[in-house]
């Protein structure tokens, strides 16, 4: 994919990998001027702290699985005007940035899920299978 958008933060952040100038211009014209854009993002973990929580995605709609993610990250790249920029994030924003940057690499949350935690959204309240690590940090 060439771009993914995280709507759960304010302002929304769009991560974009651009390889063709014409496509870049068309995409940036389409995005809201209020949306923060990170072009060609490079993700760096800024601490060793991790947490396990359920994740979902429209790519695997109706399902969730536990994924362990770093709690603190930094994403560097370029803004919509081609200037270098950096976003520091922690907690849920860090989780979402990792999730969206994974998409740019062709990785889905199910590729990183804790085994035996994949379930339908209707079964989220069921206990985790014996031997699964607990949720949280």
Could you describe the 3D structure shown?
- Pfam families: Pep_deformylase.
- Keywords: Chloroplast, Hydrolase, Metal-binding, Plastid, Protein biosynthesis, Transit peptide.
- It is found in: Plastid, Chloroplast.
- GO terms for molecular function: metal ion binding; peptide deformylase activity.
- InterPro entries: Peptide_deformylase (IPR023635), Peptide_deformylase_sf (IPR036821).
- It is a single chain.
- This protein has helices at 21-30, 91-104; strands spanning 3-6, 13-16, 36-45, 50-55, 63-70, 72-78, 84-90, 119-120.
- It has 137 residues and is α+β, with helices and mostly antiparallel strands.
- The chain has one domain: Peptide Deformylase (Alpha-Beta Complex).
- Strands 1-2-3-6-7 form a five-stranded mixed sheet, with helices on one face. The protein has a three-stranded antiparallel sheet with strand order 4-5-8.
- Strand 4 and strand 5 form a beta hairpin.
- It is elongated and about 50 Å long.
- The two termini are 31 Å apart.
């Amino acid at each position: 994919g060439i771009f993914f958008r995280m709507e759960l933060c304010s302002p929304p952040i769009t991560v974009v990998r651009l390889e063709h100038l014409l496509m870049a211009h068309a995409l940036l014209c389409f995005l809201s001027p209020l949306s923060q854009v990170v072009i060609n993002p490079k993700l760096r973990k800024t601490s060793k702290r991790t947490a396990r929580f359920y994740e979902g995605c429209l790519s695997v709609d109706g399902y969730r699985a536990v994924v362990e993610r770093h709690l603190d990250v930094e994403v560097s790249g370029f803004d919509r005007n081609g200037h270098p920029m950096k976003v520091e994030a922690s907690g849920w924003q860090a989780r979402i940035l990792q999730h969206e940057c994974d998409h740019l690499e062709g990785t889905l949350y199910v590729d990183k899920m804790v085994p035996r935690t994949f379930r339908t959204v209707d079964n989220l309240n069921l206990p985790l299978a014996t031997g699964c690590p607990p949720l949280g940090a």
